[in-house]
Structure prediction request, 686 residues.
Amino acid sequence: MSVIPLPQHGLLKVMTPDQATQAIKEQQSEGVPQVSPLPSLVAYFRDRWEAAKLAKEPVARQMLKNMRRRKGMYEASEVQSLLEIGGSQGFYRLVPTKCNAAVSWIMDILLQPGDRPWGVSATPIPDISPEVKDAIRAQIKELIIQEALMQEAMTGQPINVAMLGERIKAELDAAYAQILEQEKEYAKDKAENMEDLIEDQLVEGRFYDILPQLIEDLVTTKAMIIKGPVIRRKKSRAWKRGANGKYEMSVEQKLVRDVDRISPLDHYPAPGSTGPDDGAQITRHRFTRKDLYELIGVPGYDEAAIRRILAKHSRKGLKEWLWTDSERDALRSDNNYLSTLDDTKIDTLELWDCIPGSILKEWGMQGIDDPEAEYEVNAFMVDGEIFRAVLNPDKLGRRPLSVASFIDDPDGFWGESVPELCEDDQVACNTLYRGVQNNSSLASGPMVEENIDRRAPGESGGIYPLKTWEVTDEQITGTPAVRLYNVQYNADKMMNVLRSFAEMADDHSQIPAYAHGNENVGGAGDTASGLNMLMAAASKGIKTVVRNIDGALRDLLTRYYDHNMLYHDDDNVKGDLKIVARGSTALIIKEQTTIRLREFLQMVDNSPNLSALAGKDGLAHLAKEAAKGMSIEADKAFPDQEELIQTMQNMMQPAQMPPENGETIDAAGNPVAGGDVSQVQGVQVG
Prediction:
């Protein structure tokens, strides 16, 4: 809906987009200057924006620092200090290594082949609707009563009401139990259908494309932020067989449910906010003209306002130049940040906030019943132009934002990331790393002091093997003409200290070196079983991180589930279901179970007694289960039991040579004496 001020009264009137467009045309034709819709909302919006920007400043500085550490870069102040001191400017890439390992580890857990990091399950006891219960009760009651009346008519015996009631109750209980079992099976089918539907929507909405970026945000900055489902109008292709039998492509516009990654640098929570549903939340979007145009026709967006914005910023776009933009652009991987100065994207602010009903009534918003109540509002603004201002469509008042951090802060919006956890270790390693380089360089050869007053005429400086200096002592100084100084080599000692700090980073970051391929573990890690124990212990830390991600995914997928329950046409996907995020439970349990199963299989195989006890069938079963855990198709890797037995019998039989000169061979392989067998049933064998 659009809100346009009436110039003759100064009041607010709610219009549809078509009515708003017509009103603007009439104002233009009458020469009435256009007034921005909802001027009070614009002022409120800007107040919240300024407060959020001020509160975000120290957080944004830490994020940019984390991003520099992630790329192996020093702060500008550190670079200046190193230039003044001189010597090495080397950066020990501790944080980049830990971040790469963390991203890979988390992605391996979430995206295991053949598994989804989430699922949809039916509730343990599905509900039977009162209508169904009433219909069953009426039907059973009528049948039993009719049967009792017929029996009374045939036997002349009166109906025993007590026994009749007990029978009806027993029949009802049996019917309810049968229907309950049917409902359970039906609910499982619905859960599978809903899961497939959401999976299709996630693929269509680019979720799996942006998931690596989200994990990178979680590991590097202070949080990852997911928004969805976001309804957009997009072009879609469909293939249909034409009259000539050939397939033809048709293109149509349809509403899709997208998933958006919100850059942590672009999100501004209210001061003191502890989560996306607490306090005002403002996101800065960099929309292209195409992004804005695709919002035309989407329910809740003002078409007239969008067209005004597109007309106003048709050439140069709009960039409000946040202070973080220049530093952020400089950290881009292509280093071509100057190209962003001439882009045509349009800075757009999105607000989610809980606002008193009395203020909303002043703005003229419809649906405000209680002026003392708080109402959730979503609004979009570009350069003082509001093109969306609606009540939160979610009936529970939830906002379509999910947040997770590497280390969550229950009392704050932003958590901690790997660069922050390793910050002190990174500084210490950098200092020692530069010291090792400087010391190695200085100790690689002698430093020379030369008294140039004693240099003979024509003698040049420099030093090389077997060099001879020609000198004089005309000033009778008595000092050596050349002195050599050797710097003590301490690099090996500093490297030992550096390794100690790097090992401390293993504990601080919860990402040990052996988790990303370092084989120099030592101690228990030198054995296969010991390394498995260490990996199991290390996974406890990463489990906490994946649980944080599970919470964000569960919120996102629950919103998809609710949206499908409300608006999807197929009843076969609807039911009393729940979203299960299983990244930190089932998948990690599966990984550990596979390790234990392989160890058990090896133990059985190495023990003659256990092998004999298990037999071929038991060993084959263990091998198949271990293969399944490693995502290997066990049925293809191992033949069926009957085929396996037949193969083994064939292998045990001795090879038989073909007969020579037509001789018949007996079971022992000896020629059999006899007549000519070239004639069989009158057929000549030549």
